[in-house]
Amino acid sequence: MSIMSSQPKYQRRKEDRPQEIAxxxxxxxxxxxxxxxxIDDVAKRAGISKGxxxxxxxxxxxxxxxxxxxxxxxxxxxxxxxxxxxxxSSEDFLRGPxxxxxxxxxxxxxxxxxxLLISEGPRHPDLVDYYYENVVAxxxxxxxxxxxxxxxxxxxxxxxxxxxxxxxxxxxxxxxxWRLIFADKPLDTDQLMESQIEMLLAQLKA
Amino acid sequence: MSIMSSQPKYQRRKEDRPQEIAxxxxxxxxxxxxxxxxIDDVAKRAGISKGxxxxxxxxxxxxxxxxxxxxxxxxxxxxxxxxxxxxxSSEDFLRGPxxxxxxxxxxxxxxxxxxLLISEGPRHPDLVDYYYENVVAxxxxxxxxxxxxxxxxxxxxxxxxxxxxxxxxxxxxxxxxWRLIFADKPLDTDQLMESQIEMLLAQLKA
DNA sequence: ATAGTTAATGACTGGTGAGTCAGTAATGTC
DNA sequence: GACATTACTGACTCACCAGTCATTAACTAT
Lengths: 206, 206
Hints:
2 copies of one chain form a homodimer. Chain A is built from 9 helices and no strands. Chain A is mostly helical. Chain A folds into 2 domains: about 15-55, Homeodomain-like (Arc Repressor Mutant, subunit A), CATH 1.10.10; about 65-205, Orthogonal Bundle (Tetracycline Repressor, domain 2). Residues about 1-5 of chain A have low confidence and may be disordered. The structure holds a DNA duplex.
């Protein structure tokens, strides 16, 4: 019929599989949600057989947790890291890097993780704790730190700290949820976040 | 063994069943989410057999849509209605009834509906549209109306309208999501909303 | 080459749950 | 009381899918 193929049917790639599977799973979860995603779909996306998935992840739930942690460490960790090492004035930091960071979150994989946490979180409390400690607590901490610094430098007045750091993030949250639910309905989310930062700065300044 | 029971095994209650089933379904969805809820669970909660559910709702998806619409009309409709008929000054309205409304939303069934929309919305676009028109658009409209009135009366300055009504609701949104994910971690959500309203009023006032 | 190791396959199983429907009994009507 | 109507039951089907495992074939060492 034809010349014998010297192409092997598959290659063994022990090193890369876990990451590839996690990426495929993330894409699948993003599209259909956790419950509606079949392990078979994930395998197809990753270009492997269903069985192989189970060599690297014991259960579907294991895979789920790995996916969330994977996104968290890959994205947020570095971003928050950068942010912590700047030495801008408090005001410039809040208006600059923080605002930029906020603007890009609603369209990032973090939004997908939030969706997954909202729908599946109640059945994975350890995952929720992990996310709280590694993302939320650190994020809020970073903001609080910059407000504190602003007070120390006299840029902000003494009782500026009464404003909870959550207030900075509220419009980001709304933008994220808006996009998750009403993907098509337009909303100038950047404008929203800018207004909030300006408003807060006006309140904080001495 | 005993005196013959004259108690019938069941009563026919054609009128009440649909509502009872919807209530049971809402409770079940709230607890376990849409995908993880079995029709059998819903039936047990409603005190009926599984088969009867299908007499009143053709499919599980039908039931889901009915549940969401049911909650929406029963709760939000009346609330927004009340709000629209007050004749307080703009400032008093925003600080009073609006704030009160916002404070109780994160703990109300609306939060559950939001959770369901976030996780199942993408597969039910018509439901999303329904929700947008009947809740979101009307809610935002009501706020915009009060800001406009404030400008007309000279309470707020001319360009107060540049502030999107979404900004009022952002902390409410954050509080809601926070509770949905981190039910146990405390957060003074009332304080958050109060600060935001005060901040916005400070910006709006002439 | 050859044998040994193990990454990878894919057919299979067991459990589950949405949706069906033949039968039952509550209620209405005369 | 007898008959007709239909709300309601519960056992059943059938498709689907997480997880298993015997087998295959890609790689490695010698």
